[in-house]
Prior knowledge:
Blueprint: E1 14-16, E2 21-23, H1 25-31, H2 50-94, H3 102-115, H4 128-143, H5 151-169, H6 177-189, H7 191-203
Antiparallel strand pairs: 1-2
Helix pairs in contact: 2-4, 2-5, 2-6, 2-7, 3-4, 3-5, 6-7
Amino acid sequence: xxxxxxxxxxxxxxxxxxxxxxxxxxxxxxxxxxxxxxxxxxxxxxxxxxxxxxxxxxxxxxxxxxxxxxxxxxxxxxxxxxxxxxxxxxxxxxxxxxxxxxxxxxxxxxxxxxxxxxxxxxxxxxxxxxxxxxxxxxxxxxxxxxxxxxxxxxxxxxxxxxxxxxxxxxxxxxxxxxxxxxxxxxxxxxxxxxxxxxxxxxxxxxxxxxxxxxxxxxxxxxxxxxxxxxxxxx
Length: 234
């Protein structure tokens, strides 16, 4: 009998591409995406499953709050605004797609980070989302120059953002955990923003950050309107 690769107790019945072995149906149902970095093409995965999105979204809300606290301490509202721009563009682009992967978001942030390097030499054609993020970033910097960071701080924020997204995504090559968490978080906590972004994306309008900005004091215990108490549950 092959035991489940996750709990090592029950019998493994499903082939789990993320764990490289068999998993029992109970562990698969309970931990997929939330604790296991599932590839987007796994037959047991439905990344648009609302229940799953909400669970990963609640977990993401906690990690996101800690990350914004770090950004505010590092570079204030401008630093938080840069990551919020990445979130807004990502939700707008990926919320209606079933085939999106965290790797595309990571590659786009890396690509944007390279363009801020003084030694940057444009390389081969970029991925579609990387090009999209760069255009949105340039439009934002042009339309709101007072909100843009200096190059060095921007590069630091992007380095931190890369670390945050990569850690939340997990080690799976085709993981969708970050996208599921971010989209699930916005749909659960800011449904009106998710709807607005979908409309903006369809009409091809440029998106500006602020649709679901972090609270000005993410480390404070009071909750501004629209921020829900169950963020604190573990």
